[in-house]
Amino acid sequence: MKDSNYLKEHNARSLWHPMAHPADSLKNPPTIVTGGAGVRITDVDGHEVVDGVGGLWNVNLGFSCQPVKEAITAQLDTLPYYSIFRGTTNDAVIQLSEELRDFFEPDGLTRAFYTSGGGDSVETALRLARQYHKIRGEAGRIKYLSLKKGYHGTHFGAASVNGNQNFRAPYEPLLPGCFHIPAPYTYRNPFNESDPAKLAQLCLAALEDEIAFQGANTIAAFIMEPVLGAGGVIPPHESFMPGVREICSKHGILLIADEVITAFGRTGSWTGSRHWGVQPDLMTTAKAITNGYFPFGAVMIAEHVAQVFEGDETGRAAIGHGYTYSGHPVGAAAALACLAETKRLNVAENAGARGAQMHRGLLALQEKHEIIGDVRGGHGLMNALELVSDRASKTPIAKPAIARVQEVAYEAGAMVRVSGPNVILSPALVVTEADVEVILTALDKGLSAAAS
Ligand code: PMP
């Protein structure tokens, strides 16, 4: 391999990074990751750390999952690619669909439509939602509702339902007909309400109000993450998602659960929807479906929605949507192996226990560090700190200070993710008690350095 300086220089010269200013990689060269084993990564300088990010919320089984590597290799040897566009299919994708049908049966989801990742899954769900209404003769239902602070990807459709200006403003105008309601974000909200149960009711009332304002018969779908992830890990009160389900059903609006992060155990339940006792109409998945070993995703479809499509005799249900890599046999083989390991290791249970440990540790850090304004999580391995320069005024922390948290935590043995004023912790679901302690200790050092 080329040396570290060569790689840094050429990285800055010849590629742009997602979610970064193009000039930044020269000023602040990114960490060059050269290896991954278990839940640890190694960089080009030989420094090894516990990955507190889990890749990008996706490497739930860690980097050494041998059955997945073997499944990929075996599939490459047999059939490296063939499309599943009308007229052809493959063995791996059929087997996977049967497995997913069993896995998601408690969520009421019985059909799969395959994609190459999270944004593709969101795009697919948004499009299928409109088509569902057209098939049923309600062609006027074209709008989408979503939550402020929600993150759904960066395709035009996904970006249009995103609730964070950073991902919207540079690319406007976005898709017309997308409207946002306040998120149940207890630390900061327009109602000044700090009680999660009361805030959930206020947000639900805002949803009802927006539906009345737009006209229910103009709305195709409401999309939400069961626990908001990239927006800073915002778990709603337990009454929120059931309340959304009730309102959507009352008004004939499809509920899309965006479970790109939460499906396959991250919340401590097998899906985020199940965590809240809700059955969505469509569910987007990606990330942990293949653990990052292959780009892949699936939209899961509720039985009653599937029946509307399958029972159509007008031709309106013909699906004019799909990707070259929909149902990719290597992705499907990887997903089959991931699902088997996910179930065998019962990772949801470990996510619950280790997530609770992490949350307790973060609350203890808040006692010690004034710059921790808010600690969020408590639902599996999705946890975050929101940092402030002043607790009373809740002034967000300055960029260099939070960058310092990350830098020092890394030197001290853990990769943590920084996004705006938030430090996000989403390690693999197979982390041990000791791994969590390494992350907390490293973070403690980072926080001390940022405050000094
Ligand atoms: N939805 C959610 C909830 C996500 O967290 C993400 C990615 N973090 C996406 C959609 C988009 O996924 P991708 O980056 O694979 O397109």
UniProtKB/TrEMBL annotation:
Highest taxon of source: Bacteria
CDD domains: OAT_like
UniProt entry keywords in alphabetical sequence: Aminotransferase, Pyridoxal phosphate, Transferase
Cell division listed as a keyword: no
GO molecular function, one term: transaminase activity
Cofactor(s) annotated in UniProt: pyridoxal 5'-phosphate
Family designation: Belongs to the class-III pyridoxal-phosphate-dependent aminotransferase family.
Name under which the protein is recorded: Aminotransferase class III-fold pyridoxal phosphate-dependent enzyme
Organism the protein comes from: Pseudodonghicola flavimaris
Lineage, highest ranks first: Bacteria, Pseudomonadati, Pseudomonadota, Alphaproteobacteria, Rhodobacterales
